[in-house]
Specification:
single chain; mainly beta; OB fold (Dihydrolipoamide Acetyltransferase, E2P); 4-stranded antiparallel beta sheet; about 35% strand
Length: about 160
């Protein structure tokens, strides 16, 4: 099992609501435990690599630091657009496509704001209000819950 498969398994367990998953193979064992009140605990045991096959570790890419965002003083006059379902939030139709909306964009009733993937179905989420996007509250490709705030919109 490679690191990509482990990451996919962790994402699956966190979305599914299962509390614990254990997988045991001939020379590999992994246990993933989740708890509503505490962050997920991951434990993996890998076999030791033979000394002859030891090599220098691959370089790790470091993601750039996110841009500082000015805090929004008063959110009482903004409309919160919430997730209508559980799934994975995407800001564009695919990695190569442009983002549906950015902070500062003007939107109208029926504008596509994002996609939420649920059980391999991609659902376009449309705006029910007209206004300007003030803040995007969810990171791209992250899981969302039902009724979780996604966007803050300043109404027209």
């Amino acid at each position: 099992m490679d690191i990509k498969q482990i990451q996919d398994l962790i994402r699956f367990v966190s979305k599914s609501g299962v509390n614990e998953v254990s997988i045991e193979q001939k020379d590999f064992k992994i246990t993933i435990k989740t708890n509503e009140a505490a962050p997920a605990v991951y434990h993996a045991t890998l076999p030791a690599a033979p000394l002859a096959a030891a090599a220098a570790p691959a370089p790790v890419a470091v993601a750039p630091a996110p841009e500082p965002v000015a805090p929004i003083a008063d959110t009482s006059n903004y409309i919160t657009i919430k997730s209508p379902m559980i799934g994975t939030f995407y800001r564009s139709a695919s990695p190569e496509k442009p983002l549906f909306v950015n902070v500062g964009d003007e939107i109208s009733n029926g504008s596509v704001l994002c996609i939420i993937e649920a059980m391999k179905l991609f659902n376009e989420i449309e705006s029910e209000v007209s206004g300007r996007i003030v803040k995007i509250l969810v990171d791209n490709a992250s899981p969302v819950e039902y009724d979780q705030p996604l966007f803050l919109v300043e109404p027209k």
